[in-house]
Amino acid sequence: MRLVRKSLLTLCSLLLAVSVLIPQTTVHAADQKWMNQVWSEYQSYNKKTVNAYNTYQKQADKKYQQFYDESHASLDQLERTVLEDQKQWDEKLQADLDQLKLKYEGNRDLKDKLAQYERFINPSYLNSPMWKYANAANRHYLNSTLWKLSKEMNEDYLNSLMWTYKKTIDPDYLNSSAWKFNKTVSETYLNSPMWKLRNGSSTSYLNSPMWKYKHGKISKATAKSQYSKLFKEQTTAISKSNAARKSEIEKMASGTQKKIGELYKETVITLETRREEALKSISDLRIEITGEGLQWETLLVERP
User: Fold this and answer.
1) What is the DSSP letter of 137?
2) Which is higher by pLDDT, 93 or 1?
3) Which end of the chain has less Cβ packing within 10 Å, N or C?
4) CB within 8 Å of 227: residues ≥ 6 apart
5) Do residues 85 and 275 touch, judged by C-beta distance below 8 A?
6) Which percentage of the chain shows pLDDT scores above 70?
7) Distance between CA 261 and CA 61 in Å, rounded?
8) How many Cβ atoms are within 10 Å of 112's Cβ, its own excluded?
9) pLDDT on residue 302
């Protein structure tokens, strides 16, 4: 009898233990499902945000490269046009000088004028009209008209317009707009919004809402409330930061394009002016020698 009673007591204890364990296992499974859901939703948000950033960065790089290529193509074409014009005038004026020397050979009254004419048409003679025209179109001559344009288009020239534009969209250039954009969406960059969101979504990060809930420090309702607040704060911070960075990049891109476009127009006008001044000076001197000047059309800008 005593043995039967002992067996019944043991059986009751086992049943009680099972009755306690079964509900706890069900609750734990439901909790784990929610925690997995939170982590999965974070991963989806992270992937979507990072993909959007990568797409934007590629577009910004492509837009910059296209502008760079088009700008330099225009610069190269402008240079070729002016250099070819100078070459033609050098040949034409040298031939003209040779004819004038033959025509007025022995004329002492025109000897000095012919010598002056020879200096005027020589692009290597310091401060001659053709020297001024030639140097204005020399991109390697310090502070020349074309040098100034070429400098601003040079992405390697410190603080030039193109250099500043390139650095703005370079995610590896410290504190640039693109660098800040990159760090904002990086889950591994210390204290970035994405870093905070990742840790807040993780059950492994000490004292995160999910960690505290997993270890029984707070209730599920409290965990949901804390996580909801954290998610809203960090996703809002990411959205605002990304919008600000995009605005900075777009402003830089449009501003640079406008400034270089204006500088290009100024360069064209200045080169046309140098050419006009050179040919007019030579033509006026030729009139003094022969009574006839030179004939020419504008090269880059139509006369009003």
Assistant:
1) T
2) 93
3) C
4) 38, 200, 201, 209, 210
5) yes
6) 89
7) 20
8) 9
9) 76
